């Protein structure tokens, strides 16, 4: 029953879209004619082309599976529109889908018609003889005929139930034929995406280099300079003021310790030794073990991935974990790494306060950028009040 | 001797204040960014400023630019620049106004406490102090045609001379007599077409100018 309802709703929408398509088709023709006067026709055409895109995109989302949108540049000048193959394909779709969408009306109209058939005997009895009752071209002039109408109504209802499936299949095929991006458009879109993600990857690694340089400059390097200063003064005072010299040597040793541990942290940040030795599984364990908030770890991965993938996955886990510890105020964190052969699924959940937003936090943006280079995706669900879940899917070429 | 220190890392700033104070300098201000530095130098007019090249907000050459700006307002204001790296361009910009009283040292030199404090005094006195690494880089790059005419010993003398050392210091460093040093120097200046001079500072400037700084 719900399915029948859903189908009816779909058919109704198709009818509406069909009407809109016919309207837009007329407008398109009108705008094309207006193009003899470019100052008027130009804006008209580009606006109508945009409307057609919106309508077509709507249809792309309606069919299952959804069709990707093929558009690249916004159509501004007449030239853009006329030279754009997607415009002509959209227009062809308007032409074909107008009648096809309207045809849906005949399909959903089967429901009221079938129901009318079922109640024909009652209608026959209630209505005066002069009412000229007919059912599907059958004049109901006798009680027998009214019972025949019941049978016909039942058949119509069965058709009303099944026809939409055929209709939807046909509609999807038609739309796919005219609305799918052409091979060239798909290639274009892919190239564009690759350029974008490559830029992001380059930016990310440049930012990473800057961070490392800053960490070294402000950290270990500064400590070593301070250390030589202490040592130099200690050396100079060794004979004249042994007590001060000794204090300075102690300072120097403490400084050396700090420099060593800062270097160690930095190295761990660049390429964690656990990641190099034990792979992602081991590194995830190390991350969980070093977390101040208890982490429930679920690792289903028993192979080594390629080094860049391991390193990106580790970065995601470390960043997401750091977020949960620092910002969420979580009492409990769940972390999972699942090998799904062609990709690897990473998930970090916490029971903290939620409200994480990728647009605000640089950490989440960092994760997005890092993953984009691998065609990976990240989904953040974090309603205010929590819980927060960060899920990343990273292709790993099996 | 009144000193202004500019260094953004607390650790180093405190260390430097402590050290210079221990060696008889009076640290009148220790600042941590370029804008404050320029203002402080002009208002306090210290005897010498010890400045980290890299300061907030840009963390590039903020310190150097602030020092150069201050020297424009107060000509000849002695400035010793400290840097984590040797950068010829910085040395050239610093020496640009030819007014003297400048130094350019690698940061690690602060560890050689005596030499470092000596360098601060030298700069305060209007001298020029270049880090041996800077000099080595300058000697290494370009001007090869005329540099090639120098003997090995002359090149060594040139290197130490460019660091701002006096004849006596050059002599003791290279373990030769002072007379030999002045002979070498005359020969160098002649070969490089530089005007002879007795003043240490002018001599260094001439050499550095020749070397392309």
TrEMBL record, chain A:
PANTHER family: NITRATE/NITRITE SENSOR PROTEIN NARX-RELATED (PTHR24421), NITRATE_NITRITE SENSOR PROTEIN NARQ (PTHR24421:SF10). Residues 308-398 form the Histidine kinase/HSP90-like ATPase domain. InterPro entries: HATPase_C_sf, HATPase_dom, Put_sensor_dom, Sensor_HK_TwoCompSys, Sig_transdc_His_kin_sub3_dim/P. It comes from the Bacteria. One of its GO terms (molecular function) is protein dimerization activity. GO terms for cellular component: membrane. Its EC number is 2.7.13.3. Pfam families: HATPase_c (PF02518), HisKA_3 (PF07730), Sensor (PF13796). It catalyses: ATP + protein L-histidine = ADP + protein N-phospho-L-histidine. Keywords: ATP-binding, Kinase, Membrane, Nucleotide-binding, Phosphoprotein, Transferase, Transmembrane, Transmembrane helix, Two-component regulatory system. The chain crosses the membrane at residues 92-111, 147-167. This is histidine kinase.
From TrEMBL, chain B:
PROSITE patterns: HTH_LUXR_2 (PS50043), RESPONSE_REGULATORY (PS50110). Residues 143-213 form the HTH luxR-type domain. InterPro entries: CheY-like_superfamily (IPR011006), NreC/VraR/RcsB-like_REC (IPR058245), Sig_transdc_resp-reg_C-effctor (IPR016032), Sig_transdc_resp-reg_receiver (IPR001789), Tscrpt_reg_LuxR_C (IPR000792), WalR-like (IPR039420). The modification 4-aspartylphosphate is found at residue 52. Pfam families: GerE, Response_reg. CDD domains: LuxR_C_like, REC_NarL-like. It comes from the Bacteria. SMART domains: HTH_LUXR, REC. Residues 2-122 form the Response regulatory domain. One of its GO terms (biological process) is regulation of DNA-templated transcription. GO terms for molecular function: DNA binding. Transmembrane segments: none annotated. Keywords: DNA-binding, Phosphoprotein, Transcription, Transcription regulation. The keyword Plastid does not apply. This is DNA-binding response regulator. It comes from Phytohabitans flavus.
